[in-house]
Each structure stands twice: as C-alpha cells, then as structure tokens.
Design the sequence.
C-alpha cells in the first residue's frame, strides 16, 4: 500500500504523460488481456471528446464481445439485436439528421447475420459511421468460425481448419461496401502497434468529419486480434495477425472521396 | 375544427391518420394486403409538409429495427405489414418490448401458415396477444372493425404506447384493410417538439447518459425487470380494457367476435332473433387486455358462448379462461381467407347449443 501512496505522490500534473480518456467511464472493460477492442474504444472516445461530439453522439452497440460498449463510453447508446445495428442507426439518423450516429460491430454481427442491413444501409448512403472490428472469429460465444475466418484457420466449429470446400469462403465486407454508390469513405486499419493506433485514429477522425458532409456512409474496418479465441498469447496473436490476416485483409484505404 | 369526410380503404385511412396524428416516422416493406399504407404515404409526401419520415426498408427485419432506433429517440414511429412480414419482425418486437419502447405496428392479417393466402384471416391472434417473439411480454392489441377505427386507433395507439412505454399492435385484417368506407378524419395535429427524458438525443452535460437496451446478465436484476413488466401489464389489464356490447342485455347466447367477424356477427344476432333465439354480441376492442371480467359476468346470464373467429380457434381459449366452465363455450370460424357468413354463424349456434 505504501507503494501506491508513493506513486500518487509522484504523479503531478507536470509529469502526467497518460491517463484515462475523459469519456471512458469508470466501468471495468469486459475484454480479455491483449484484445484490440479496448484500444479501439479508447480512440473512439478520444475523438468524440476532441471533436466536441459528446452531446451529439448516439452510438449503436452490437451483439458480440462489444455488446457492453454502452457501459464504457459516456454518451447516449442504443443496444441493437444481433446484426441489426445499421437498421437501428438508420432509424436514429433519419429522425435526428444533425446528430453523429455510428455503429460499432464485430465480424459476426456485421458480415454474417447483419449482411443485408449492412449492405442496404451503405447502399442507401445513410449518413452514419460504421466501425467494423474484424478478428476473424466469434469471440463472445467462445471462438467459433466467423464469416471472416481465414481458409485453414482453426476455430471451435472448424477444429481442423476452415475447409472452404465445405464451409465456404471468408467474406471481405469492406471491399464489397467500397463498391456501393452509397458509401463515401471505406478504409481498413489496425490497432496493434502505436503507429497503427495513430493511423486508425486519423482514419476515424476523417470518417467523423466526412459524415458531417452527409455524402454517404463511412466504414472503418479495424483488423484485430482475439488471443483467447485464437488460443495464443497477446504478443503471438499480434504476430499471427500481421503474418496471416493482413495479407488477406490488406490495410489501407479502399474508397476515398474524390477531392 | 370540423372532421373531414372521405371514402377510403382501411390501409389508406391508417396512412392518412398517421400524417394527421403527427407521426414522426414510418418504416415499412411491401406485402399484400397492406401495401397501400406505404404507397399512400409515398404519394402524400408528408416529409415535405409535416416532416414525417417515410422509408421503404430492405426487409421487415430492417423496418422493425429502424422503428426500434427511431422509437429509442422518443419519436412517434410506426410500421405496418401483414402476417408473414409480422413473423419476420418478431425478433425486433421482442427487443422493443424488452427496451420498453413505444411504437405502433399495424398487422393487416392474411391467412397462413407460411405464405398462406392474401385474403383476410384472424389467425394471428395467438401471435399478437401472447407475445409473439421470445420472452415474457405483451403488446397492447387493438382490433379495429371498420375503416373509421383503423383511422381512429392510430392516435389511440400512440397515446397508449407512450403512456405505458409499450409497443401497440393494431390487429386488422385483409377485409378491413382493403374495403372502402366513409371515414371522418381528425384535424392535423402538430408533431411533438419534445421527447421523453429517457430518449437517446445525444447526452447533454446536464444528465446521465441514456441507454436503450434489453440486456442484463444479472438474473436477479433481470427478474426485477420482468416483475416490473408484469406489474405494467397488470395495470394495463386494470385500466385499458375496451369492448362493445350489442344486444347483450337479454341475450341467452353470446357471440364473442372481433374485427371483421364482429361485423358478421351483428347480422347473425339479427338473424337469430328473427328465429326467436335471443343472441347478443360482445366485441373485444382490446384483445390484450382481454375483456375477461365482462365475459365472466355475462357467463352468469347466458346459456352459452360462441367465439366466432376466422381461425382454427384461438380467442376461444381466452373466452374459456374467462368463463371458467360456467357455461359451454364453442368456436366457429372459416379459415384460409374465407370470410364467415352470418347464416353459417347462426347455423353453428343452433347445432352446437340448441340442436338441429
């Protein structure tokens, strides 16, 4: 206990280099150690604060690991049924066109059960932001095969690896969305290194700015890890992600506005 | 202000009444026999006058979730569909009930199961009054029997939906939705400029964040919430029962029928009385809450009851529960999109209760 007191004594405003983002609540994150969700939440919370959007933001949380996102960022939230977040966000945005409306969805939510809602919201050009966290697996239910699981990748429902001849192929939803006339900005990022965190934050900031223009849907995919579902240490999972996920889901912009 | 008189289809009357009631948003998907609702709204373009949002969704699954989102903003929003589409909406309706969001869902019922027919039926009684989706919940269910009531019940639905923070279903059928009658339309009401304090509007610094959700992983807290819902439904049962009686005072036999069947039964009462059989009609206007008290009272003065429904016998179970064995209760009804005739109803009454 003496140590804690000691640290408190050392932390002075002039020495402060890092602290909890203002809009993150006191609730304890429900994520496994090393998971990318926490970082993705943080940059989102930072941006809502920095852009002065707390009183304009209405978020839609998904079903999946980030189902409790509404407990973590101090803004108004609606919890959607599995996959329905883009339809829920459509309802909100159509009634409140001046608000900042966004969804935060995993790959099972967005690319499997919610495929129709995602594609049609983006094709209508709903002026919303979709944050799509793709870790290639169903994390919350314990590591089952997702629409984004790589060929050959093991999961609890593809225990010998995804055999595409039986189980079908992984789906590149961001690429599909980029082809739709209603989408305005589509990019794929990651948050596994400080440099990538900065890039991802820049991309989300761009998307937030773009959605103010009301020119269509912005989608930011974040390729992320799932140490528990992949049965790896956090460090191993980040290495595996770079070696296996990025070649299949290359990072970078998929659609940028003509400026 | 004087009411405007028009000749309209039930579906058109719902749409016009919605604009006049100051509804903020409609989200829907075409399906026979209710497509006129969205067609009428698209033709009327209320987004240019009252500012009402009208959007055709990619499916009923999407439209009910758009309703969820917009209702979570504290707005007056609605959808309409017919039986197969309403089945698709059940997930969203359960979430709406769980998040306690007010909204209006219009079901212009057609025969089922499956694709069934496109003709009128009353086979969605169980689905509408007993929950429909997963979990313990009830919709408030209003059963219009005329084009006029399809119009009038729009405003009433929102009044009830907001009073109880509960979804309301208007359970019509293909006959009332499609037929034309004269209808007195209410004057235009302005759209509300305020929303309830629980609505997600963007969090001002002056309040805690608002969260619309139906999730609680703690079973003890979830049970408390379920008890709260139960108390709400009990209050609704206490205060919101609506029904209409037709020649019940001296009736020896009672027809219990709603919607189209109730109109048929009015004629059946007349035909029966012409043959010396004292028949009466109780027409539930609310199916949930069900007029069980009144039916129980009437069981003391009649010799039997006939539940007349265009179904295989669904409401009859609620009539039996209310009567609790005091007098015999039977069901009569045509199915598959066939509307019962008044003569068939009288014949059924005679064969079941009187003999011959």
Sequence:
């Amino acid at each position: 206990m003496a140590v804690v007191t000691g640290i408190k004594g050392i932390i002075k405003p002039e020495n402060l280099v890092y602290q909890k983002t203002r809009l993150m609540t006191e609730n304890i994150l429900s994520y496994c150690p090393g998971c990318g969700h926490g970082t993705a939440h943080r940059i989102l919370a930072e941006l809502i604060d920095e852009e002065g959007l707390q009183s304009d933001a209405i978020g839609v949380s998904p079903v999946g690991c980030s189902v409790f996102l509404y407990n973590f960022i101090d803004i108004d939230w609606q919890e959607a049924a599995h996959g329905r977040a883009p339809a829920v966000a459509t309802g909100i945005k159509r009634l409140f066109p001046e608000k900042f409306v966004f969804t935060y969805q995993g790959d099972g939510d967005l690319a499997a059960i919610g495929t129709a809602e995602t594609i049609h919201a983006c094709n209508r050009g709903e002026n919303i932001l979709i944050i799509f966290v793709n870790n290639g697996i169903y994390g919350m239910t314990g590591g089952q095969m997702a629409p984004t699981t790589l060929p050959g990748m093991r999961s609890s429902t593809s225990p010998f690896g995804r055999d595409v001849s039986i189980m079908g192929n992984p789906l590149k939803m961001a690429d599909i969305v980029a082809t739709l006339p209603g989408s305005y900005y589509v990019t794929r990022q990651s948050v596994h290194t400080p440099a990538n965190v900065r890039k991802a934050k820049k991309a989300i900031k761009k998307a937030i700015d773009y959605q103010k223009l009301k020119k269509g849907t912005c989608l930011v995919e974040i390729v992320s890890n799932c140490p528990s579902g992949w049965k790896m240490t956090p460090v191993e999972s980040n290495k595996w992600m770079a070696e296996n996920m990025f070649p299949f889901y290359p990072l970078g912009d998929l659609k940028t506005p003509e400026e | 202000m004087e009411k405007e008189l028009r000749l309209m289809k039930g579906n058109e009357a719902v749409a016009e009444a919605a604009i006049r009631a100051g509804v903020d948003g409609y989200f829907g998907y075409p399906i026979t026999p209710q497509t006129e609702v969205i067609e009428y709204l698209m033709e009327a373009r209320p987004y240019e006058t009252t500012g009402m949002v009208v959007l055709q969704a990619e499916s009923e699954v999407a439209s009910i979730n758009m309703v969820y989102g917009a209702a979570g903003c504290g707005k007056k929003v609605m959808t309409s569909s017919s039986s197969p589409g309403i089945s698709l909406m059940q997930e969203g309706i359960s979430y709406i009930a769980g998040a306690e969001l007010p909204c209006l869902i219009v079901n212009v019922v057609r025969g089922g199961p499956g694709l069934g027919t496109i003709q009128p039926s009353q086979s969605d009684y169980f689905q509408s009054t007993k929950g429909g989706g997963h979990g313990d919940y009830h919709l408030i269910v209003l059963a219009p029997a005329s084009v006029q009531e399809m119009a009038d019940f729009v405003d009433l639905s929102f009044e009830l939906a907001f009073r109880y923070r509960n979804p309301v279903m208007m359970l019509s059928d293909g006959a009332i939705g499609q037929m034309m009658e004269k209808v007195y339309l209410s004057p235009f009401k302005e759209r509300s400029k305020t929303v309830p304090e629980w609505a997600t509007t963007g969090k001002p610094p002056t309040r805690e964040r608002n969260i619309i959700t139906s999730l609680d992983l703690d079973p003890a807290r979830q049970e408390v919430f379920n008890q709260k819902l139960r108390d709400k439904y009990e209050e609704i049962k206490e205060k919101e029962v609506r029904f209409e009686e037709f020649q019940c005072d001296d009736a020896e036999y009672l027809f219990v029928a709603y919607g189209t069947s109730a109109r048929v039964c009015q004629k059946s009462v007349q035909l029966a009385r012409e043959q010396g059989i004292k028949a009466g009609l109780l027409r539930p206007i609310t199916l949930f809450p069900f007029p069980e008290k009144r039916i129980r009272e009437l069981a003391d003065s009649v010799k039997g009851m006939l539940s007349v429904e265009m179904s295989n016998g669904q409401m009859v179970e609620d009539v039996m529960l209310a009567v609790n064995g005091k007098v015999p209760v039977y069901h009569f009804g045509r199915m598959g999109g066939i509307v019962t005739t008044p003569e068939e109803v009288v014949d059924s009454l005679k064969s079941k209760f009187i003999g011959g």
In short: Chain B has twelve helices and 15 strands.
